[in-house]
C-alpha cells in the first residue's frame, strides 16, 4: 500500500520547479514595459494633434486671404460672412471658432502725399471667440498719416499694397486644445499670417447691401 506524501514534503520540489520555470517572464516584462509603451503612444498622438492644429491654422490664414482677394466686384459684408464660414469648416476639427480669432484687414495706399504718404487699413473685420486684438493696427490706421508707411507684418517681412489696388492681410491666432494633456506642449498659442493681392477689384471700399451685422474688431 503506497503512502501519500504530505504537501510539506513536496514543497522543496515545487519550489525548485518554480525557480526553473520561465513561463511568466514575458508577461512580467510586458507589465514593466507597458507604461513606457503607453507614454510613447500617447505622446505620439499629442504630437500628431499639435502638428494638425498648426496645419489647420495655416490653412485658415491662407484660405481667408485668398478667398477675400478673389472677390472681383466691390467687397460686401455678405462676402465677409462667406469667407469666414469657409474658415469655420476648415477649423471644425480643432474647434477653431471657440478657441481662435481671425483678423482680416484691407491694406492699401492712403492717397496722401509728402510726409503723410503711406499705407492704411481701409476696413477690418474679425471672427472667432478668442479675445485678442489686431497686432498691427485697427481700421483707419494710417488713413491720414504715415504711421503704416512700411505696411503690415513682422519687422523684416512687412507687406505693402501696390498703387490702385489692395492686399487682403490676415492674422490668425489659435489657443491649442490638447488631445490628451497639456503637459507635453503646455498652454500653446499658434499664430499664422497671410496676405494676397485682390484680383481685378477697382473699388476697395466695403458695402453692406443686406444690412448684416458688421463683424467689427472690438
List the topology elements:
Blueprint: H1 7-20, H2 25-70, E1 75-76, H3 77-90, H4 96-99, E2 100-109, E3 119-127, E4 167-175, E5 189-197, E6 206-207
Parallel strand pairs: 1-6
Antiparallel strand pairs: 2-3, 2-4, 4-5
Q: Can you walk through the features of this model?
A:
By secondary structure, the protein is α+β, with helices and mostly antiparallel strands. It has one domain. Helix content is 36%, strand content 19%. The chain has four helices and six strands. The protein has helices at residues 7-20, 25-70, 77-90, 96-99; strands at residues 75-76, 100-109, 119-127, 167-175, 189-197, 206-207. It has a four-stranded antiparallel sheet. A two-stranded parallel sheet has the order 1-6. The longest helix has 46 residues, at 25-70. The protein is rod-shaped, with a radius of gyration of 31 Å. The mean pLDDT is 89.
Give a quick summary of the entry.
With 218 residues, the protein is an alpha+beta fold. The chain has one domain. 36% of the residues lie in helices and 19% in strands.
Helix-strand pattern: HHEHHEEEEE
Please estimate the helix content: 25-40%
Structural class, judged by helices and strands?
A: alpha+beta
In percent, how much strand structure appears in the residues? 15-25%
SS summary, helix count: 4
Number of domains: 1
Biggest beta sheet summary: 4 strands, antiparallel
Order of strands, widest sheet: 3-2-4-5
- Mean pLDDT across all amino acids: 89
Give me the Rg, rounded: 31 Å
Low-confidence stretches: none
Gap between N and C termini: 101 Å
Number of strands: 6
Given the C-alpha coordinates, what overall shape results? rod-shaped
